Each structure stands twice: as structure tokens, then as C-alpha cells.
Amino acid sequence: MGHTEAWQCQLAHSANINRLESGGWVPALSTWAGHAEAVATLLWMGTEVDGADAEGCTALQAAAWGSHKDMVELLLEASTQVDEVNVAGHTALLVAATMGHKAVVSALLFWGAAVDRVDPEGWTAQAVAAVQGSTAMAQALLAWGLDEKHCDTWGWSLLHLAARDGHCPCLCLLLESCPALDCCSHEGHTALTTAALHGHHPATELLLHYGADPNLCDAEG
Fold first, then answer.
1. E-strand stretches of 63-185
2. What are the strands, taking DSSP E only, across the chain?
3. Which residues of the chain have a pLDDT value below 50?
4. What is the CATH classification number for the domain harbouring 171?
């Protein structure tokens, strides 16, 4: 008996398909996260798609974390809230970007996920891509818009984040889209000084090539 048939058999004898496990999950959506056909059957039979487990993780975020694109799309078709956050303040888009699941990120964006939604530290999915140096991910996210003036809670822009770790391909992509070249962090550091302080000479040269001002001083002069 296949996965879908097994669940259909169990559901046929079940009094409550939305009964929660001790951890807070609807069993159907947690056990079969990744078996899109089974999940489609469960959703058709009325399984709850909203709500979270005991740790505040929704079914959509679990599917995004596991790179289950088909399940993500099924949940969104069933009217799951695309920008619902978990207890850490993360949306499914931020979860998928953190895990590097570009196909899931693209699906979530297609379904209206807010590309500029921030977590409690002021990070967006674009910030995650900049930190990871994921050019493909950054490119997919930038296609849906960019707030060039946005900074995290430390005043770090996307350029700061990419420059800090010397991610030149990602940095180059951002420089093509982000005119706010010399914005300063709360400590007064530009992306250029950030790259230089961390010893990333190629990133430093790249920023200079794009016109970063080498004469700007930080908070200590």
C-alpha cells in the first residue's frame, strides 16, 4: 500500500483528521511533509493548514525548510497565509532563503510573499542571500524589488553584509542594483571600510571600482 492509500485508509476510520499531536502538529501535515500527493488528499478532506506546532512552526514553514516545493504550493492554494511568522519572527520566505532553497523561494514570491518582510533583527531574505554569498538567490529576490536604504538593527545594509564576508559575485550584483554605495552603519562603517577591516582585498577593489569613497571616516575618525 502506498503512502496516499495508507492515509486514505486511516482517514476513512478517523473521527477527527485535525486532532493535534502532543507537539501541536496536525499529524497529516507533519508526517507526510514532502509527499505532495498524500498532502493533496488530506487538504481535500479538510485538514487544517493554519496554526503552528508547539515551537511556533507552521506547516508552510516546515515545507519551506525541507525544500518541498509541491507541498508549499498545495498549502498556498489552500489559502495558507504566505507571510505568517513563527515564534522567531521568520516567514517561510526567510526560512527557505536561509536553507538555500531557490525553487521554494521563487514559488513563495510568486504567491505574494513580501520580499521586504524583516525578522526581529531587521534581516530580510535578501540579507540572508548577501551573507551567504548566494548570487542566484540574491538575483531571484532582487527581481521582486529592493529597498536600497534598508538596514538591519545594526545599521548594516546588503552591501555591508556581502562585503563583510568578501562575497564578490554577490557584491557585484548588489552594486548594479544598489546606488546607496556609501551608507554607514551605526559605527560609521561603509561597505568599503567593512571589506577593508576584514581583509577582503578583492571586495575592497570592487567597491572602489564602483566609486566608493575611500576618504569617509568612521565614528572614531
1. none
2. none
3. 1-4, 6-32, 44-46
4. 1.25.40.20
